[in-house]
Structures are given as C-alpha cells and as structure tokens.
Amino acid sequence: MIKQLTITFALSLLLLSGMAAYAASASSNIDADIVPAIAISNTVSLQFGMIASSALAGSVTVTTAGVRSASGGVTLANGTTATAASFAVTGADSNTYAITLPADGTTTITGAGDPMGVNFVSNPLTTGTLSGAGAQTLLVGGTLSVGASQAAGAYSGTFDATVAYN
C-alpha cells in the first residue's frame, strides 16, 4: 500500500510540474490622459445687413466668407456690413470635433413684421480639426428668407453652434 501511495504521489508531482511549464503571466501598465474640455465662443455675429423687400418674397445669403447676395424680390441696401458669424473653438491639440448647427427651418429672427427663417452653413462643414496649438476658427453663414412686403424695422434672434470631440 505504501508503495502504491509513493508511486501516486510521484506521478502527481510530475503532472503538476509539467502543468507549470504550460502557464505564464505578465503585467501591463495602465495609463490615461485627460484632455482639456472643448470650448467655443462667439467672436463675430452673423449679420445680413440692410435689405429692401418688395411685393415678391426673396432671400439674402451670406457665405462663410462674408459675401452677401440676394435673390427673388429682395434688394441689397447700403449700410450695415454683412458678416459671417465667427467662433473660436479650442481644445486638445490636433483633435477632431463634430459641428452641430440648427436644422433648416427651425431658427427665425423676429422684429416689426412676420418672423423670417434662417438656414445655416459652416466652414468647416460638419467636422473640424484643432491645430497643433488646439484652436480653430469656425465660420457660419446663412440664408435669410424675406417675406413679400416684409415690414420695415430691425429684426434679431440667436442661434447655437455646438461642438463635441469625435
């Protein structure tokens, strides 16, 4: 019996030592870098300038470069200079970000007469890339829908430009 136990014990030791040869482990470091929050601030407002309406509806467009044009029953008047909106975007160096502007048909400006709708376009269009210094200028232009015989007076409103890391 003792001989049988000795053989069983010896075989168990051999099996256990053989299993150790088939297993190994290693450690890994764990790292994380927290980047600065992305931020946006308005530096120039979107300005359509002075406009003359007529008996026909029309529109005024200001490009992201600040170039103004009219169509339909609208005439561009002299006076206030048209400008695209400008936003300073800052955050982590060389990161990309998504740009969200109001959906078409959801923003209006109000004043003396009926509200006028504004649709937007941006440069960059939907995704921006921060520079190596963590900054980029976001330009926003738009198209203003002017009603037929739109009442004279000042009109104003606001819109939000939203940015988020991709």
Order of helices and strands: HEEEEEEEEEEEEE
Mean pLDDT: 92
* Secondary-structure class: mainly beta
* CATH architectural category: Sandwich
- Give the overall shape, derived from the CA principal axes: elongated
Let me know the largest β-sheet: 8 strands, antiparallel
| Beta-strand percentage range | 35-45%
Distance between the termini: 72 Å
Q: Which range best describes the helical content: under 10%, 10-25%, 25-40%, 40-55%, 55-70% or over 70%?
A: 10-25%
Indicate how many domains the architecture comprises: 1
Quickly name the level 1 CATH class: Mainly Beta
Q: What fold name goes in the CATH topology slot? A: Immunoglobulin-like
Low-confidence stretches: none
Count of DSSP-assigned helices = 1
Radius of gyration equals: 33 Å
Tell me the total number of β-strands.
13
What do you see in this structure?
The chain is mainly beta and 166 residues long. It has one domain (37-165): Immunoglobulin-like. The protein is 11% helix and 39% strand. It has one helix at 2-20; strands at residues 39-44, 51-52, 58-62, 68-72, 75-76, 85-90, 96-100, 107-111, 116-123, 127-129, 135-146, 155-156, 162-165. The strands form 3 sheets. Strands 1, 3, 4, 6, 8, 9, 11 and 12 form an 8-stranded antiparallel sheet that branches. A 3-stranded antiparallel sheet has the order 10-7-13, with no helix packed on it. A two-stranded antiparallel ribbon has the order 2-5. A hairpin with a 4-residue loop joins strand 8 (107-111) and strand 9. The mean pLDDT is 92.
